[in-house]
Amino acid sequence: MEGTVKKAILPAAGLGTRFLPATKASPKEMLPIVDKPMIQYAVEEATACGIEDFLIITGKHKRAIEDHFDSAFELEANLKRSGKKNLLDEINKLRDVNFAYIRQKAALGLGHAVLCARPFVKDEPFAVLLSDIVIPRGDSLMRNMIRLYGKLKCPIIAVTKVKREEVSRYGIIDGIEESAGIYRIKDLVEKPRPGESPSDLAIMGRYVLTPDIFGALRRCRPGRGGEIQLTDAIKGLLKKQAVYGYLFEDRWYDAGDKLGFLTATVDMALENPELSKGFRRHLIRKISELKE
Ligand code: G1P
């Protein structure tokens, strides 16, 4: 079943305004969580599920992403010479993965970014991963979504329960739970106000879609924030086909938000064998200072 989805799209054209000034001339997707850029977590998650071809949708000031996934002869030669095999293996990890890039020429929203991928996708199902949602065990989520797609042959969207006061940060689904954690979606709303939200099930940046989405995206009018929204296009699909939500209940971070980014950094630093001891000691000291 895993072999059914071979391509992934990573939209990375956003302006990253929440991280200004850091993102003035550098991509938000390259901000590191501990020592790895955010976008690499998403790429590794997808390659672990058998995805081989990536299309990264870029925009202005995003060249560093292309350089990051390219080979680096001088650096490699230097690491080889100085016997730093671990680092060499680390930077060569994604050597056999194919990356293609396309520019979204205007900031018209996530839906428009996905529409730019039309020539790359052709007639295959594909995954979409939003790299500012960081999921430590995301490969198991994506694997389950691909499996479910293989069974149902319908678009599958990862959803998770969020607090009522957080619904306006996400796309929210309304659905009927057909079996444990699998929702047949009846409606979707992009960033509703808490009082108007149909549920607490938020779309969390992982999708398995089919090329039908492109027709739906072309029919979409600008939605929330004046942008072409992927959520609205998926809603458009509902008239003709079933779409399912797959409930994710493990740990994830919204690293597109400063607090989420910091939380991910702290947690992952505590789990990093090189850092955990020293960082833990620092945190304990800090917490006791805060208590004083
Ligand atoms: C996008 C989607 C939204 C989703 C969110 C997190 O919003 O439009 O439906 O819930 O990602 O995956 P953004 O955070 O780009 O505004």
Amino-to-carboxy terminus distance: 56 Å
Which term fits the overall shape?
A: globular
Weakly predicted, low-confidence segments: none
- Supply the number of helical segments: 11
Bound compounds, each kind once, are: 1-O-phosphono-alpha-D-glucopyranose
CATH fold assignment: Spore Coat Polysaccharide Biosynthesis Protein SpsA, Chain A
Which class of secondary structure composition applies to the elements? alpha/beta
The overall number of domains is 1
> Strands of the biggest beta sheet: in what spatial order?
8-11-9-10-12
Task: Say how many strands there are.
Answer: 13
- The topology string of helices and strands comes to EEEHEHHHEHHEEHEEEEHHEEHH
User: What's the mean pLDDT score?
Assistant: 94
Please state the second-level CATH architecture. Answer: Alpha-Beta Complex
- In what range is the share of β-strand residues? 15-25%
CATH superfamily, please?
Spore Coat Polysaccharide Biosynthesis Protein SpsA, Chain A
Sheet with the most strands, sense and barrel status: 5 strands, mixed, barrel
Specify Rg, calculated over alpha carbons: 20 Å
Give the CATH class: Alpha Beta
Q: Tell me the helix content.
A: 25-40%
